[in-house]
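Problem 12. The chain below contains 380 residues. Write out its predicted structure in token notation.
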Amino acid sequence: MNSLSQSRGHRRTLRRGAALFGVAALAVTLAACGGRGGGSSTSAAPTSSAAPTSSAAPTSSAAPSPSFAFSSVTIVTPATEADHGWNQMGILGAKEATMALGLTLVDDTNVGYDNTETILTQAAQKDGVGLVIAHASGFAEAADHANAATGVPFLIADFPDKQIAGKIGVMTFDAQQGGYLAGIAAAMNTTTKKIGIAISAEDINWFKMAGGFVAGARSVDPTITIDVAYVGAAGYDDSAGGKKVVQQLIAKGDDVIFGMGDGATIGFMAAVDEAPSPVKYIADIGDVTELAKNPAEVLTSVLWVFTGSYEQAIKDVAAGTFASAPYNLDLKNGGIVLQDTPNLSAEVKAATATATSGIEDGSITVPVTTTKDELKTLLG
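Solution.
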């Protein structure tokens, strides 16, 4: 996510054993039976060892950790964990992965998009750094240059064509799968038969999740009305704009809103809080429960769990197999999960568990919409 935070932030070093920042609702997630053992039931959330792994080389949590020729990993993010989304979950995943492997994490947050090549190069030049996680799709080109200058491996997001074995690894996302589950939850909770999608920016993963959401909702009710509103071409952190577009959706009668925002999420939530009649909110990537004035408003969130893929990437660097394939997040490996909340009924949990199994075994095909035009075509 190309968050538009403009100021250079703080840098801090977190050593093994440091407390993780709180994401309370990550304690329990909705897990389907496919590949995880049994039935349409709610189970405990994956821990660091059970979180997603690289599609190239999945590992067992029982496998011994490799010995490392390096002592630390750095994550560089455009904004802070206060976005309750992309930055929140990336930082959390990096903390958990390095703690599990006994490494030090250098956390360089809120760097924005000015002078990123210099920032990434300096991050790689720190003593003991074995991997730099350049946690923004907008960092890809700068990471390529920083790798060429330093020789330190970099992990970027969203551009598998930029993968270079041993040098540049890429995080990829089957975001549409989580969107499909969110669509089911929305369609089963609306009373007006009108639901809305709020998109902060023209982002490939937002389009993919939105397309999955449309397909999931229509699998429940083909006649349901689905409205889409955009904050802007790159309004990731535009809270005021986010509030405005969600107010527009609510004015149309949409009583369940799926919001994709990063910092714009704060505005999305404010509009839901101030709605003249009850509205349910579905978040993406992170946990937004603490933002809601009324906890009953937050139906669920499509969580992205980075821990296992980061852990796998670190192990691959040590083993000399880094970037042999993209490090993907999906339902099957636990990288994409639907957050369990008290507001999800047993019927919704059963329906989304069944859908998860179908997606995992291939009996349900979720459309992949990667552009605004493709999403528009799907909506009809």
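Discussion. Residues 11-173+304-329 form a domain with the Rossmann fold fold (CATH 3.40.50.2300). Students who got a different answer should revisit the alignment rule from Section 12.3.
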